[in-house]
Design a protein that fits this description.
The structure holds 2 protein chains of 2 kinds. Chain A is of the alpha+beta class. Chain A has 17 helices and 16 strands. About 25% of the residues of chain A have low confidence. Chain B contains 10 helices and no strands.
Chain lengths: ~475, ~210
């Protein structure tokens, strides 16, 4: 058999092993079903029909790219990716995550829109200053970067949320035509049924709930840990309720529905109770959204029980949209999807997108060691070398006893950047700090590979001899023998 | 009375071993055309190994394997209405897998140029279970394959990595046997030349019949 055929057989065998190791059947079934159900397949056919038109536009596109580069990398229009850093979206794209997952659109200006489990949204249009997004049903979190001309719109039914730079969470219940908007930063103006024509401005820390019968605005959750209103508890601490600014009609008691919202000046407890009862269905969707990593860290712990007669103290998580939405119910709700869960299912791109949306930098400063290394793995396998580097270095700085970060940094330098000297440096550090570490054999093997590929013959030979001495039956023995020489 | 379509959705079940395979295949395709979710699941269960092997052979076990595989199945479900010969289902799926992989490879190449993304910033092929030499060889093999024209690369990888017969490769690529043989010959020559430049592969390909060509 020829050498090349032998090589190909080896490649084929390695690939078969790898395919045996991964199990994608259920994931493929799920994704295929979701795409067929959502009619994405149809739109793909239509996309293909336009392919020739696209080809015709290719020259113009290339010219545009050159123009963009020349124009100091300023894009006249925002671009966005969906779920993966290299999967560029286009207007009309659906954000319809499979059950138990979230889906994020990340825009070129740094803004992010994350759609929760059982929710549907669509990117309607994109221009230089923002985008228009329609939330058909369910839960949407948005983090919009403020710039001079920022102009974003989120539509939900007949409601419009106008944004100039903020972070907020929206739940739209299509069946009940009920909208909930929770602000974390900045402010938005909401217009639509149940409000005056000028709309209502919702500021950070407030929750707006609107239906055709009227609207209520309440302080949803304080920024620091504070008593939280418990459903049905008349003695609970009363948060401050700020009336909706302009709409006089909204402050009138709604006559139509028996469970209509109370006047905005009503007891905040009642406000919360009403929101909870009306928003149960929609908040259920919200509750499925993934929490921030900080919240996820608490996920394994049992949910604190809520005594009906006493105020419950919920850990404040102002940066956790899902928890905030869930807190409308007054009861912590277990979250279905986290970037960790996605990582466990090897969905690294999605996990990375979610981790970025939830605050990667903060996680690097706050996560415990194992999670921080996992975050680095997610970034590395999700294709973001810079973020992976950031996470691993943070882990090494904060948890010097951990062995994985140095090894991972070596692997990354080796495989992603092909900087073999840097790889050798990290791997040497690993072997120095953790000579009997669980990855010592692999690190020693990689070290000799790295020196060899860096062209450092003498160091490669020395590493090979050390390897043969310390790991005579290791997987790199063949290469080590070749490099060690006679 | 339920409609015909609804009836087929309700009535479909995976064929029993004793059934006439052709008849079972026809029923299966009818159920797929009717949009039967169970038939869709059976489709994935039955043909995933084939599709996975072909896509992985063409592209490597990359991070977007799942994306490409699901694209293949969506293409099957979209196009099953046009399938005239039920007995050709498997070869048709193989062909779709090859063409979907080809589209993805070409798109990646286009984006790589347009986006100025250096190849090393793309995710590596995660063959983590194999030993160091094999891992390097796999990685180097796909780097070399990346330099081949797409059609030649596909012919080469289908033949030697997915281990298909020549006739199967020809059918999947929808070209004649003679064409596929020519492509393979060109691909082999290019692979050999490019492998000579690879420090990992050079030693290996210096031996054997290809080196003597």
């Amino acid at each position: 058999m020829s050498a090349v055929k032998e090589l190909m057989k080896e490649v084929a065998a390695a690939q078969k092993n790898e395919l045996r190791r991964i199990d994608i059947e259920s994931e493929v079934k799920h994704l295929v079903a979701a795409r067929m159900a959502e009619g994405t397949a149809k739109s793909r056919v239509e996309t293909r029909t336009w392919r020739w038109v696209s080809v015709g536009s290719a020259v113009a596109a290339v010219a545009a790219v050159v123009f963009v580069v020349v124009s100091l990398h300023r894009s006249p229009f925002l671009t966005f990716t969906i779920d993966a850093p290299t999967h560029f979206g286009q207007t009309g794209d659906l954000l319809a995550p499979p059950a138990g997952q979230a889906m994020a659109a990340v825009f070129s200006d740094g803004s992010r829109v994350v759609v929760g489990d059982s929710s549907h949204a669509r990117i309607d249009s994109v221009d230089a200053n923002g985008a228009a997004v329609t939330l058909d049903d369910g839960h949407l979190d948005a983090s919009i970067v403020h710039r001079a001309q920022t102009r974003w719109v989120v539509r939900a039914g007949d409601y419009q949320i106008r944004v100039t730079g903020t972070r907020f969470s929206t739940v739209w219940n299509r069946r009940d035509h009920a909208l909930t908007v929770r602000l974390y930063e900045g402010s938005v103006v909401v217009t639509g049924p149940g409000m005056a024509a000028s709309g209502a401005r919702v500021r950070a820390g407030h929750v707006l709930h609107a239906t055709a019968q009227g609207a209520t605005l309440a302080v949803a959750e304080p920024e620091a840990p504070a008593p939280q209103v418990v459903l049905g508890d008349p003695h609970a601490a009363e948060p401050v309720v700020e009336p909706l600014a302009p709409p006089a009609e909204a402050s009138e008691p709604a006559p139509a529905a028996p469970d209509a919202p109370p006047a905005v000046t009503a007891s905040p407890t009642r406000v919360h109770r009403w929101v909870a009862s009306r928003a149960t269905a929609s908040a259920r969707a919200a509750a499925q959204m993934s929490p921030t990593p900080a919240a996820a860290a608490h996920q394994a712990a049992p949910a604190p029980s809520v005594a009906p007669a006493a105020p419950a103290v919920a850990p404040a998580a102002p940066a956790a949209p899902a928890r905030a939405a869930a807190s409308l119910l007054g009861t912590p709700v277990p979250m279905a999807t986290t970037w960790r869960a996605l990582a466990r299912r090897a969905q690294y791109h999605q996990a990375l997108t979610l981790a970025l949306a939830e605050g990667f930098d903060r996680d690097c400063d706050q996560l415990r060691g194992d999670d921080l290394v996992l975050l680095g793995d997610v970034a590395r396998l999700g294709g973001d070398v810079r973020r992976a580097d950031q996470a691993y270095r943070a882990a090494l700085r904060r948890f010097p006893d951990l062995d994985r970060p140095a090894f991972a940094l070596g692997v990354m330098a080796f495989e992603s950047r092909h900087d073999y000297r840097d790889a050798a440096s990290w791997l040497s550090r690993y072997l120095h700090d953790h000579p009997t570490g669980p990855l010592a054999t692999e690190a020693a093997g990689r070290l000799l590979e790295a020196w060899d590929l860096a062209g450092e013959t003498a160091r490669a030979r020395e590493a090979a001899r050390t390897y043969l001495r310390d790991h005579p039956n290791g997987p790199h023995k063949a290469l080590a023998r070749r490099l060690a020489g006679p | 009375m339920p409609s015909k379509t609804r009836g087929s959705i309700l009535e479909f079940r995976p064929p029993a071993a004793a059934e006439d395979p052709q008849e079972a295949n026809r029923a299966f395709i009818a159920a797929l055309r009717a949009g039967d979710p169970r038939a869709r699941e059976v489709l994935v269960e039955r043909y995933l190994p084939l599709v996975q092997r072909l896509v992985a052979g063409a592209m490597g076990v990359e991070s977007d394997l799942v994306d490409v595989v699901q694209d293949v199945f969506v293409a099957v479900l979209e196009g099953v209405h046009k399938l005239k010969d039920p007995s050709a289902l498997q070869s048709w799926i193989a062909s779709l897998a090859v063409f979907t992989a080809r589209g993805r490879i070409r798109r990646k190449r286009r984006w790589r140029w347009i986006m100025f993304v250096p190849p090393e910033s793309l995710p590596d092929i995660p063959v983590r279970q194999s030993d160091g030499d094999t891992r390097m060889a796999v990685r180097a093999t796909y780097r070399v394959l990346d330099t081949l024209p797409t059609d030649e690369r596909l012919a080469f990888s289908m033949r030697f990595i997915a281990e298909m017969e020549l006739t199967e490769v020809a059918a999947a690529c929808r070209v004649s046997l003679a064409t596929i043989k020519r492509r393979l010959a060109r691909a082999e020559a290019r692979f050999l030349a490019a492998a000579q430049e690879s420090p990992v592969l050079k030693d290996r390909v210096d031996r054997g019949r290809w080196a003597s060509k």
